[in-house]
Amino acid sequence: MSSSILIVDDNRESARMLAMLLELDGHETRVSHDGHDALVQARSYHPRVVLLDIGLPGLNGYEVAERLRKDESCRDSRIIAITGYGREQDRRRSKEAGIDAHLLKPVDYDYLANMLAQDGP
User: Fold this and answer.
1) What domains are defined for the chain?
2) Which of 3, 34, 70, 101 shows its CA 20 to 30 Å from the CA of 76?
3) Neighbours of 108 (CB within 10 A)
4) How far apart are CA 7 and CA 34, in angstroms?
């Protein structure tokens, strides 16, 4: 199943490569490199999935997720953190912010593709 996916990562090369892989798998993607722009893009794009780095300039990924969960146009988007933040407290904070899944970088692309093929987190 293809999805509309917003990739939010301040590492431009990483975001671009992930977008290319996802597009090869038939997904439609958009890319954002900071928290404020991510909110603007999400509100206009209404992505089915948001792949969200936590360590972003401006608003961090937790703040972005919290705001997306409160926004009518993005409330039901599936939010998957793809981050270097892997401590238990980071995972707990992700859950509190409304993030559906917390994956560590470097993410296994096959695992991510399988997650995207499923209906839920």
Assistant:
1) 4-117 (3.40.50.2300)
2) 34
3) 10
4) 10
